[in-house]
From TrEMBL:
Residue ranges annotated for the HTH tetR-type domain, each copy included: 9-69
Pfam families per UniProt: TetR_C_8 (PF14278), TetR_N (PF00440)
Residues within the DNA-binding region(s): 32-51
TM annotation in the entry: none
Keyword DNA-binding: yes
Stated name of the protein: TetR/AcrR family transcriptional regulator
Keywords, comma-separated and alphabetical: DNA-binding
Gene3D superfamilies in the cross-refs: Tetracycline Repressor, domain 2
Length: 187
């Protein structure tokens, strides 16, 4: 007897949702298959039809949140200056904020920020591929710094109850990127 794809997909989604609600409250080490199946209303055998273990569920969710090369915005260099597509990064964060705020937070997966950076960085590096005077190793460090800062500040922004408005944060990141940190400090 063949299973119907829509029911199969719904069962998988129910297991993912059950895992996510538990993961929002507990570290991954505290989430058990029994907890997931009890919450979703299935047995362990059903769980194992879709996932190997709780880490497989987390990886499935994370992979669905990492943008593919087709989903990332194009990066261009107007006047040889890297234009960071801040609006697109904000949109990506807003679309996935319920996940990003947890995954990049205290209870989240420390490797998730690295997965995001490792997806975005090669696209930006590609822009400089044919430029002869660019030190690629130094550029790698610059992008690591910039992307870490952007992911960090946006993660922080999502956790704040009295967060500054989106346009103010966008303006702040732009100023920090273009003028540097020291010029923003009240010294």
């Amino acid at each position: 007897m063949k299973k119907r794809p829509e029911i199969t997909e719904q069962t998988k989604q129910n297991l993912l949702d059950a895992f996510w609600s538990l993961y929002c409250e507990n570290r991954i080490e505290k989430v058990t298959i029994k907890d997931i199946t009890n919450k979703a209303g299935y047995n362990r055998g059903t769980f194992y039809e879709y996932f190997e273990d709780v880490y497989d569920v987390l990886e499935h969710i994370e992979n669905s949140l990492i943008p593919t090369l087709d989903e990332l915005p194009p990066v261009f260099t107007p006047n040889i200056t890297l234009g960071m597509p801040l609006e697109q990064f904000f949109e990506l964060y807003k679309q996935n904020s319920k996940y990003y705020s947890v995954l990049l937070g205290e209870k989240g997966d420390p490797s998730f920020a690295g997965k995001l950076k490792n997806t975005i960085k090669p696209i930006i590096m590609q822009v400089f591929e044919d430029m002869p005077n660019v030190d690629k190793r130094e550029l790698d460090y610059i992008l690591e710094y910039t992307l870490s800062a952007m992911i960090g500040i946006m993660s922080y922004w999502f956790t704040q109850e009295d967060a500054i408005p989106n346009d103010k944060l966008h303006e702040l990141i732009k100023r920090l990127t273009e003028q540097g940190i020291m010029k923003q400090l009240p010294l």
